[in-house]
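ingest -> validate -> predict -> emit
validate: passed (alphabet ok, no gaps, 1038 aa)
predict: started
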Amino acid sequence: MHLSDLAIKRPVFMSMILLAFVLFGFIAFRTLGVDLYPKVDFPVVTIVSTLPSADPHTMEATVTEPTEEAVSTLDSIENLRSISAEGVSQVIIEFNLKKNIDIAFQEVQAKLASIRSNLPHDLFGPIIDKYNIDAVPILSLIASSDLPVDELTHLIETEVKEPLKRIPHIGQIKLVGERKHKIWLRVDPKQMEGYGLTIQDVEQGIKTHHIDLPAGRMTKNSAEFLVKTKGELFSVESFNDVIIAQRNGVPIPFRAIGKAEAGMEEERSSATFNGTSAIALMIGKQSGANTVEVAKQLKKIIKQLQQDLKSKKIRLEITQDNSVFIEKSVEEVRFHLLFGGGLAILIVLLFLRNLRSTFVCALALPTAVIGTFAFMSYFDFTQNVMTLLALSLAIGLLIDDAIVVQENIIRHLEKGYSPLEASSVATRQIALAVLATTLSVVAVFIPVAFMKGIVGRFFYQFGVTVSIAVLISMLVSFTLNPLFSSRLLTPSKRGALYQFLERLFQTIERGYASLLKVSLKYKKSVLSLALLSFLFSIYLFGHLRFEFAPVVDQSEFSVSLKTPLESSLTQTKGVVKDVEGRIRNYPWVDYLFSTIGADRLGSVNKASIYVKMLPKEKRKTSQREAMARIRNDLSSFSLAHCTVSTAERGAGGGQGKATDLQFEICGPSIEQLSLISERVMKKMKEAKGYVDIEISLEAEKPQINVMINRAAAADAGISPFLIASTLKTAIGGSDITSLKKDGVRDDVTLRFSQEFRNDPSHIAEILLKNPAGKLIPLQDLVTLCEEKGPTQINRSNKMRQVTVSANLIHSQKVLGEALKEITSFFAQEKLPDGYRFKFSGAAIMFQDSFNNLFFALGLAVILVYMVLAAQFESLIHPFIIMLTLPLSIVGAIGSLVIFHMTMSIFTMIGIIMLMGLVTKNGILLVDFINTLYHKEKKERDEAIIQAGKFRLRPILMTTLAVVCGMLPIALGKGAGSESRSPMAVAVIGGLITSTLLTLVVIPVVYALVEDLRKKKFFMTFFFKKIRESVVFLKKENA
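emit:
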């Protein structure tokens, strides 16, 4: 029994099945998460180790390289990066998308545990975490108050940061502009020398007088007591009275050689909001976490904290919230979905001119869309731009099958069939064609859904969502359409409007029939015009500009500043203030949020200004224009190197500085890497279209190397460790203990006075004490060497690496053109052995994406052919239908050129989708021609013309429904529309041209193919007769 007959005979049974789809879809819709894009975060594990005062070379050799060697043997590693800087080693492991982050974390832990004994014994760490240290924050807060900075810092850490850290899936929370309370013990080396003391003596003296130590347990009368020595100091002033040593029976208090005082940490970072100082909290999420869900939980807690902190006069404000843009983008696509659906239904009403029939067709939309949500939940999809865009682009497509079935039912009703008979016969007659059209759409998305890499994961949800939706819509057309048509459709009165539109449609049909007659008469001319159109599209394709993804106006961008390497925090603050003053003059600026020292290494010469613009609807200047103006304004700014970049907002919803172009140069020598990168950068500056050119290799920083004379040190009985630890305490300072006050412990830091530390020549005067108690000046044991060294060493997959980045002037150069040019630069450069270059960031994704997408396009064409061959049981007819594919390219490429749009991954997906859409018209036309010509034995041209007239309305109706369903996306101006609009424009342009050309070219090619078949049959018959005659003559002669 056919599905339509089952629906007609058992309407309640079928209604309940379809109602179950809708019910589960509604439930799923309420539980589906919301995100900007599908979850495509690489599973990332970060390892951070600190070794105070160690230079970058030492960190690389003793920490980074052993760590890399240990973890590099793990499987599924996609990329292994590291940064070795002063006192810090950061190793970032990116696993492939299929790797479970928890398993990866455990494997890294095990590997590091096996090498911990080989790492420096005074190393702090390694600390392992499941977030990318380079990941940008999803939300930023500022806290401001009239309280002293150290008090505010303590309150923020205890009453804001701690509650936020307890929220599930929160990653790193970084404070900027904070300064903790600290106790400083500053000693005068001259006074120490006078008493014959060293810095180690002072440290030991403080520790022996500031102690709180349990002694053990005692029992008395069966009762147990704990014994504890209470020797802790309870005030800052009490440190000044600590007896460090005795000389000739005279006690030497700390105040005799130094001074203890309460203070704050040195200021190493800064945050301002519209010029007002504050403490910033930059909050990240763990890899794979949902941005919107995490942000909702954050804002819920923040709202409560704002109320709680009012009594303490602390103000909390959210400065950056990436979930806002995500929700706006998703809401915009939801609106397009509803609006497009309404337009598609209006088109159906215009053609059918019957409310009941329109209602039956319209049922396909909510049923298919809501039913798809149930499957999205099953596959663990989210409501994101890609899944909702898939439904929006397919909204006209979802009503297509219902239109075709309904139009055929109406045509049978007009022939005199009863509603019951018409519904059954018409649905069965058109079923195979509808099945073929649906499967051809599904077929084009099979390659897309299973593409490899990040783009494959990115579009997997798009392809699966479209496929599920069209399959449900086909099910609806085979069930709901005949079910309701058999009961609702009755002969109705036809008013004046109906008659007017009917005459209009009949006029169009007669005109089309006349056009077909002429076309069938001049077949070669028609084919020549079609061929010329296709060749013209190839010419236009050569003039298309390629980029990874269009720049989206997010109403925000970032200005990065880099002052000279020796700049202090105070100097950088002054530069930031000057730049803020320039930016604030523009009328489209909403607010500015600036940070200094917020990068991963806390560099005080680096600053970032987040520029929040007014919403798009409240300004005339686009984000791209605003960035160009700021860049031009700052081009003559001499106090800092300034770059202007878009706010990076990746699949995970994070945000930060993004650059259009990035490439890495890898090799063993930093000096050689620097020379190569400088030469390439010079070529880039000479070429047009590159701005904000930067290199990751920092200028070398002056440093004093203390070279130990091991023989002299051994003779004196001084170990290298004693020398190193003495220098560390004297110059950098050491946290030797802590002081508890009001339940809070503050670090107590010992170091030499500022006067000593301001003059490097004093290093040689530092005294050390050997085991015999003799004081030995450092100059007898070491040699001081001044030289310059790198501030950080970057590595990629265990090779030293330099990254060059730049932004592109869109009017002069797009990413595809830049990649070709950079590749040619390196071809001219001829890298030495052991050196290589590779693109990274958006550039590498661009290359991988288009290679995968072109492969997917080719495979989609093959799968469509296979579906059509199976449908028509013919190897020839599919080629006729597939002529619609090149004919659609004409409109797709032409529309992109006309509207000055680029070819990106979004437009490529649109074109792949087009391959499935345009075959629908050809299937409907060829299927009916076959019915009339082969089954009803009509004359060929008569069958072609009659099939064209009968199929014209459903073809026009379905095409216009799809076009109108996509119009809101093509014309959209809301959040994120810049990436969605080109996709819709390409599909609409391709649909229009393919429909117009299909209606003429397909019938002509069909006629030519049938002519060739006849000739082949005639020739076969002719040669057969010749062979028979030859055989007969031979027999006669014999």
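The two ends are 63 Å apart (CA to CA).
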